[in-house]
Inverse folding.
């Protein structure tokens, strides 16, 4: 395919995905029809089928936009080498940034409940992610650097409960809801609270 | 009304509320009709109207079952006297317990979005609750006992983001999802993480 044809097609596919993630989040995936997507995107259904095989394909593409960068953090050098407590801290700080940078996609990911193959795939990926973080917490506890009185799986649940809840109020570029906090400020605050505690 | 008439009526109203909170949570408040509630409760619509004025009344009663005990914690003696950091710690530990003890009602409260007067009332109550906790965090920071590098409103968001996320996985009386953790264990873990930090 010639370069001048690829670009517009990609542009349209990206716009379609942006529209789809919003519609899925507001109406729910089950409650969204191809007609709803076509109306929201200002495209005919047949134009949509030119880009994707159907709404489950769109869901898969949208969820990959959350899961791929979330998993990529676990492969960053600072998540791979050094004391496990520092690797875990790096993961927490960076995952907040990924969440803020991909807010609509992560928000959708967190609402997925598992009625279709794609939703079950996303839930499996989330479980695999949690298992990797739990393993890191477990190693940090084994190294004596992370408190050992909380089960590592519970550490992961509480940490990511806190991180994921940021999707409920963080709105970039507004003063409504998040004051003047940038994603970096929020990530630093989450790390400070979770690793060093609120108590002075 | 004679005592022997009051008791069965109250029993029915309680059962109805238990059914309603589940139906509202699964289908969403907007998506639930009085017919859905009647079918789920095994009652006629007219029997339901004997107890409540309609589905918004049921929503109000259900939300009060979350909000009343959540607010009651703020009036407990240990939340009223002593250093603010200790009062805040008491509030966090007890709110986890309230959440676990009233799981279906708190879960519903957290899903309310604000399309009706009752939903807007619940959101206002949540904001008032957050403001009280933020004030407590602010006083604790002023007393030099809580780290001053995180805005008190952000402290509240992160703390209650973590606490509220417990509704997503905590299931009492099962080993699925929460291992052998009781509500007390989870509350202690949340307090330890948030106040003293994960790092040893």
């Amino acid at each position: 395919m010639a370069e001048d044809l690829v670009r517009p097609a990609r542009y349209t596919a990206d716009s379609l995905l942006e529209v789809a993630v919003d519609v899925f989040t507001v109406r729910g995936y089950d409650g969204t029809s191809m007609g709803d997507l076509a109306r929201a995107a200002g495209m005919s259904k047949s134009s949509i089928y030119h880009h994707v095989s159907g709404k489950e394909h769109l869901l898969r593409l949208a969820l990959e936009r959350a899961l791929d960068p979330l998993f990529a953090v676990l492969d960053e050098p600072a998540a791979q080498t050094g004391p496990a407590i520092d690797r875990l801290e790096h993961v927490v700080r960076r995952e907040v940034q990924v969440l803020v940078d991909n807010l609509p996609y992560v928000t959708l990911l967190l609402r997925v409940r598992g009625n279709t193959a794609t939703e079950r795939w996303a839930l499996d990926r989330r479980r695999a992610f949690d298992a990797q973080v739990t393993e890191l917490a477990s190693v940090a506890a084994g190294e004596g650097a992370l408190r050992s009185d909380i089960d590592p799986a519970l550490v992961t649940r509480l940490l990511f409960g806190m991180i994921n809840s940021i999707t409920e109020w963080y709105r970039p570029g507004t003063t409504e809801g998040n004051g003047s906090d940038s994603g970096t400020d929020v990530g630093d605050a989450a790390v400070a609270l979770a690793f060093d505690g609120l108590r002075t």
Remarks:
- Confidence is low (pLDDT under 50) at residues 1-7 of chain A.
- Chain A touches chain B at residues 85, 88, 137, 140, 144-147, 149-151, 153-155, 157-166, 168-169, 179, 181, 186, 189-190, 192-200 (CB under 8 Å).
- The two ends of chain A are 61 Å apart (CA to CA).
